[in-house]
């Protein structure tokens, strides 16, 4: 393990600081552009896009676009993607069933949160490159994805967690997933405005989703056990900008002591002695969004100790056993730290994407 490293606003990270993280993402990227979780892992549209965003921050524009091309080539006719695709494991293309051993194996899920995230990735890429021609190339795929997702919004504002497939009968919504969709709707609306395409229905859908996240907790976790043991349910409404200001700070303070292990990071679940680097990086950006910069900088500083000797980031650290666990270094973990460091330092033109809300709700 390496020592904590503190970055502050205006700092420039050393040129070689993220070489290990960048190389980890690039070595995982397949010839077709796909970026699996890790060696032998699956590919999902959300984490794949997150990895592409990390590459964009580091100036690896062509590999990032190669990743977006993969999304364009694998998008289904209705605008969605399958939630998990096989990488170094068998995958039945005919019935779209992943046959590996990961959680969810055999269930062809089309997660609405995963589907919408292309909008966040596309807008992030544009903020850095300012390549409007490339944004136009991505636009039909963003539009189709958002159309698919909004078909699953209820009259109450929340959005169903997945397509209504035989393998996903639960008609329910997730706080974390809907929060991420809220941010993706912001990015999709900004893309539409930049390209001259009026989409007032997207703005209205985002307003109704924000209201559900703030005011209708009964519309989430209706048919399964609450997900509040997961830290993401705690900080994601703040990270996405659905909860802001004093309410955001109150939400963070309410569970800080149970989710954050001092000197280590953010737990994935409250009842396990396990901090995860990606969640800690996301919480860093949520703290920035809540106006708590000093806390954000300190939390991020703890994450750099969870690098291997080459500079790639372990998924997490089990601090009772004092081991990196699991022994995987996911592409999306590396990307999350890169994005959080960019947010803290303000290095790129996309640095404020997650620490600010850039578009008012339609009712405001």
Low-confidence stretches: 87-106
Number of strands: 7
- The termini sit apart by 47 Å
Structure class = mainly alpha
Oligomer: single chain
Largest sheet, order of strands side by side? 5-6-7
Features:
two-stranded antiparallel sheet; 48% helix; 7 strands; mainly alpha; Glycosyltransferase
Explained architecture:
It is a single chain. By secondary structure, the chain is mostly helical. The chain has a single domain, classed as Glycosyltransferase (Alpha/alpha barrel), CATH 1.50.10. The chain contains 12 helices and 7 strands. β6 and β7 form a beta hairpin. α4 packs across α6 and α11 runs antiparallel to α12.
Blueprint of the fold:
Layout: H1 19-28, H2 45-57, H3 61-74, E1 91-92, E2 97-98, H4 112-129, H5 132-150, H6 175-195, H7 200-215, H8 231-239, H9 245-259, E3 260-261, E4 265-266, E5 274-276, H10 277-289, H11 293-303, E6 316-318, E7 323-324, H12 331-345
Antiparallel strand pairs: 1-2, 3-4, 5-6, 6-7
Structure in a nutshell:
The chain has helices at about 20-30, 45-55, 60-75, 110-130, 130-150, 175-195, 200-215, 230-240, 245-260, 275-290, 295-305, 330-345, and strands at about 90, 95-100, 260, 265, 275, 315-320, 325.
């Amino acid at each position: 393990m390496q020592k904590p490293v503190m970055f502050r606003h205006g700092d420039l990270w050393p040129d070689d600081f993220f070489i290990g993280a960048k190389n980890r993402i690039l070595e995982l990227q397949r010839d077709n552009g796909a970026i699996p979780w890790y060696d032998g892992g699956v590919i999902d549209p959300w984490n794949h896009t997150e990895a592409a965003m990390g590459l964009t921050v580091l100036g690896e524009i062509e590999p990032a676009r190669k990743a977006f091309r993969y999304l364009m080539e694998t998008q289904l006719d209705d605008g969605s993607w399958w939630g998990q695709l096989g990488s170094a494991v068998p995958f039945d293309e005919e019935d779209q069933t992943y046959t590996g051993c990961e959680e969810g194996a055999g269930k062809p899920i089309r997660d609405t949160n995963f589907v919408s995230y292309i909008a966040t990735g596309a807008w992030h890429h544009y903020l850095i490159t300012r390549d409007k021609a490339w944004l136009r190339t991505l636009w039909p795929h963003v539009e189709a994805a958002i159309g698919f997702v909004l078909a699953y919004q209820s009259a109450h504002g929340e959005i169903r967690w997945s397509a209504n497939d035989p393998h996903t009968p639960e008609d329910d919504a997730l706080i974390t997933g809907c929060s991420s969709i809220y941010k993706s709707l912001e990015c999709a609306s900004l893309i539409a405005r930049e390209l001259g395409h009026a989409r007032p229905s997207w703005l209205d859908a985002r307003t109704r989703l924000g209201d559900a996240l703030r005011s209708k907790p009964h519309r989430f976790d209706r048919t399964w056990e609450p997900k509040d043991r997961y830290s993401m349910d705690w900080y994601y409404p703040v990270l996405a900008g659905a909860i802001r200001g004093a309410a955001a700070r109150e939400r963070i303070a309410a569970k800080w002591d149970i989710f954050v292990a001092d000197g280590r990071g953010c737990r994935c679940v409250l009842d396990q002695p396990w901090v995860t680097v990606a969640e800690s990086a996301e919480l860093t950006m949520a703290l920035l969004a809540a106006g708590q910069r000093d806390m954000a900088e300190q939390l991020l500083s703890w994450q750099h100790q969870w690098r291997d000797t080459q500079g790639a980031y372990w998924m997490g650290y089990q601090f009772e056993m004092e081991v990196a666990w699991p022994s995987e270094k996911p592409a999306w973990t590396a990307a999350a730290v890169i994005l959080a460091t960019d947010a803290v330092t303000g290095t790129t033109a996309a640095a404020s994407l997650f620490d600010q809300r850039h578009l008012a709700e339609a009712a405001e």
